[in-house]
Amino acid sequence: MKDSKVRIQVSIPAQRGSDAAIDTREAGEGEHKHEQEQMAEPQPMITWSFPGGSAGEHGAAREPGRPSAGTRVAAKHGTARAEQGSARARAAEAAPLPVPGAAAAAPGGALRGSPARTSRARLPRPWRRGRAARRPARPQRVQLHPAAWALAGLLALALALPLLVVAPGGTHQPAPPAPGPAPAAPSAMPKAAEEPTVSVYLSGTDTVEQLPLERYLVGVVAAEMPAAFQLEALKAQAIAARTYIVQRLRSGDTSGVPGDKALVTDTVAHQAYISRDMLEKEWKAGGKQPELDKIQQAVNDTRGIVMTYEGEPITASFFSTSNGYTENSEDYWSNAFPYLRSVESPWDLEVSPKYKTVVTMKRKELVNQLGLASAAVPVSKSGEGSASFFKVTAYTEGGRIKQALLGGQAFTGREIRERLDLRSSQFDLELRGEEVIITTYGFGHGVGMSQYGAEGMAREGYLAKEILSHYYTGISFAETDKLLPSKK
């Protein structure tokens, strides 16, 4: 805003007979006309009296009632600076205004309009009142009670709390609220170092291998079931093998092991087993790593699971192929187990290449292995006399031979099978000259789970536990750490 320069000419009425005249000049003349209109009404004139009694030397005038009363205009050495004012006020100054305060000249000086000296004066700023009147009313400030401020702070904190919780980089991570009781964590098997140890007698080297239970099962499944089987069948085999060894560990049974050197052997007298060295040499080095990985998965997926009956691990016997049915345990062994009952197994006929086997042996060999007299076995060219030589007197519930007569001598089906090294105790026998033709159905003792039956069920979509529940009647499932103490 530019400075307003005002020249004031003052005449003293008492001496010169003229009224005081005020001449105003300002850039931006006519800019706020409404101020001129508001301030154009006549105002009382201010008369100055100057000390010394002469015009221009002493004089004072005051306009009573003016808003800017008490504002002073001073002049020194004939010059004065006008104060900076508002651009809007400058328009109001263009009109003749009554002077609220006149300038007093310096000693020996004269006012402008006098022939002697011209002075510049600092004007009062009467426009400030008009300017303030034009301003829009400012909103009143409300003084809030301190309790209101405290309440507002609490509300802001409550709204900001969710943002603080999820803010990135925060170190505090509150646990999510639980809608109910937390689910029980699944029981885990002990670590490998804490697993029970299994000792295996290696019949080929007459040595004993000791290893953790779960690692032992990999060698058993690899030896007992083809790796090409369905994964669910392999899982069923892993559970059955684990149950068998846990039952032996729990009871401390070492029967069938030479010199009680170990818990089990690596033969089918207990469970077939492939040693760690053999797995490294013949499986990994032989390009069978994928098959070994599949077996490892079956063991891992069923880790710690065993079959029980009334809280005790069962005797989880299994075999290769049935003749269409499994056997009751007492029909092959002496003990009757309620969970080893004869059940149907129709899948074997469809999927097992071992379902039917034909064996040919010499008549003399048959006589020697059964301990028969040579005359007890007739010679026949067309098979005649076979019926009189071999006669079945009883069958088991599973359709196998329970009792039979050979050369007039009584045998059990199991005795004949074991002495002649047959695959099954269900067989037919035919004499042809000096040869004996024996046809067997199935492979194994027939008690418990049929492995090829499990494969057939897995192909139809049955899960491991469903397969096991079919072959083992009335069983439940439990975990190893509930049945065996962990090794510390």
TrEMBL record:
Tagged with keyword Flavoprotein: no
Start and end of every Sporulation stage II protein D amidase enhancer LytB N-terminal domain? Answer: 203-309
According to the UniProt entry, which residue ranges have a biased composition of type Pro residues? 174-184
Q: What protein does this entry describe?
A: Stage II sporulation protein D
**Biased composition, class Low complexity, residue ranges:** 81-118
User: Which range is the signal sequence, renumbered to this chain?
Assistant: none
Compositional bias (Basic and acidic residues) at which positions? 22-37
Where do transmembrane segments lie in this chain? 147-167
Q: Source organism's superkingdom?
A: Bacteria
In its keyword annotation, does this UniProt entry include Magnesium? no
Q: Where is this region: Disordered?
A: 1-139, 172-191
Q: Which UniProt keywords apply?
A: Membrane, Transmembrane, Transmembrane helix
Q: Where is the composition biased (Basic residues)?
A: 119-138
Q: Name one GO biological process term.
A: sporulation resulting in formation of a cellular spore
Q: Which GO terms describe its cellular component?
A: outer membrane-bounded periplasmic space
What the entry lists under Pfam families is as follows: SpoIID
